[in-house]
Amino acid sequence: MNDSSAPQTDDRHLQNPFAPATEEITAFDLPVSGALPANLEGRYLRIGPNALGVEDPAAHQWSAGPGMVHGVRIRDGKAEWYRNRWVRSPGVRDALNESTGNKARPAGADVAPNTTVIAHAGRTLALMEAGALPYELDSELNTVGIYEPGITAQGFTTSPHAKFDPHTGELHSLAYLPGVEFVQHIVSDSTGQITQVTDIPIPGETRYMHDFSLTQRYVILYDTPAVFDSEALQRGIDDVSLLTWDDDSPGRVGILPRAGGPVRWIESDPSFIGHTLNAYDDGSSIVLDVIRMDGPVNVNDAAAMRPTLDRWTVDLRAGVVRQQRLDDRPQEFPRVNDLLAARPHRYGYSAANAVITGAFPTNGEHHHEVLNDALIKHDFDNGSAEVHGFPNGTTIGEAAFAAEPAGSGKEDDGYLMAYAHDPERGAADLVILSAQDFTGPPLARVHLPTRVPLGFHGSWIPDHE
Questions:
Q1: Which architecture does CATH list for 12-462?
Q2: Please, which of 46, 129, 264, 288 could form a disulfide with 312 given CB 3.0 to 4.6 Å?
């Protein structure tokens, strides 16, 4: 069965697995193959760009599109509902011909965040970076409004890869504004209020700091040669496809004490750090597991980028960064059991990349695109990895870890959840795998009534959060 609802266009990010959803859907009592874990109660949410009314496909920038959240509600062994909703920024409301009442437009960027959806302080938050305002959603994914507690006095906002420390209840963010020569480390307490803001000078071009790392003692910054194109900044466009590589910029790792104090910079190889898996303190060293690409990187050619899983060990006494390749298969979207955030971990999970040639023909030309067709479970204690592959034509998104509520306490006692496009149905399934029986068949597939376009990041949000 072909997906005839996908828009026909020359732009490869407007068709096939990236094709945007064209309407908002609510469906109840979803069919399930297999059996949902009986103790799981909560929502699996994932967000990504979803274009609204593209006038010029050739000029379309997929990663800058307004965010749409896709969610499945699980309780009592049933999939109660599926919903997809655009985040209602003023621009999205205008495009949908919805009234904004008498509300004034926000002072920050009029962008519907599309990068991450998380829970903090009893709220569901949609986040982006580079000045995009955070938005709060209700339990059914409707937009409540701008999340004011997540904005500092200088206009910096909660960043897309905010790190939650489950032991302190704090949410840590590393935020930047294009054109401003410093970044901010922002700490929010368990009530959601900002309690600490630290300005960190970063002279020169605006660095692309999409992610960072957190340990019990430190916040770790990655200052790489990936910078925003100055001409793009003048046009007011903040998009990863408009990054450039600064050959004159060295790589640096910044070590900021969580308790306060100046940043210590230690030189590293000029690399592109896309995402981080986790980090922890180890005596006088810091262990950083990251997705890394050797520089120089053509940041506008996804197929040319080979992201690998590496371990960087920062020796604070010697002032050096030692590098170790953990897995050289192309992969992205690393995740860990969030209960181990900022603590030593044994296991990690990622999505394996397959470079597809000719999948997106444009004007008779063939392009390369990087899609995910498998998930990997890494065991860092014994240096092994297991792969859960999916049938040909299936594309898999990022997998979030959901701990078994009545679990044994073992780190991998839980489940991996991800949306997978089923080419036979032309729609998506929410696939649930056992983390302990990773290569076995899925425990359950929740069959959704529509496609879920490839997107960015998501979370399993238990009912108690």
A1: 7 Propeller (2.130)
A2: 288
